[in-house]
Amino acid sequence: MFNPKHPCILTLALALLPGVAVGAGAPNHAPTYSNVCMHPESGDLLGLEISFVGGVDGGYALVQRYEGEATAPEVMKIKPRGDSLVLMHGNTESIAVQREARGLHVTHLDGAQSSTGASTETLPPASAVWQGRQVAVCK
User: pTM for the whole thing?
Assistant: First the structure.
C-alpha cells in the first residue's frame, strides 16, 4: 500500500520507468507543473501537481492532488487531442491540459475543482513536491 509520507518509494519507481521526463519521447517542456501550497493556519497542503513521463506511445502523466495531505498518485495515459492533451484515468477523460506561456492550463473533466472552486486552473512550471520541493504558503 502506498504511504505518501515515503516519497522515496515513488521516486524509485519513477526512476525505473523508461524515458522519465528527460528521456526518449519526453516533452520539450517543463516535466512538472504545480500549484501546491501550504495553508497558513493549518499547515495542510493544497493544490494539484502534474508530472509528465515520456514514452514512444504518447507517455503518461503522474497526477498528485493535495487535499490537506497528498492523495494517492494517479498515473494517467496521455491522449493527444488537437493542441491539447487529455489525461485518461482508465477509459475516462479526467483532465484536459494545454501548455501556455505562463504554465499548464488545466480543465477538470471529471468533476474535480480547483482550490477556488472552478473547473479550470493554471499550474506554473515547478519542481515536484514528491521530490522534496518546499512549498510556499497559500495566498
Answer: 0.77
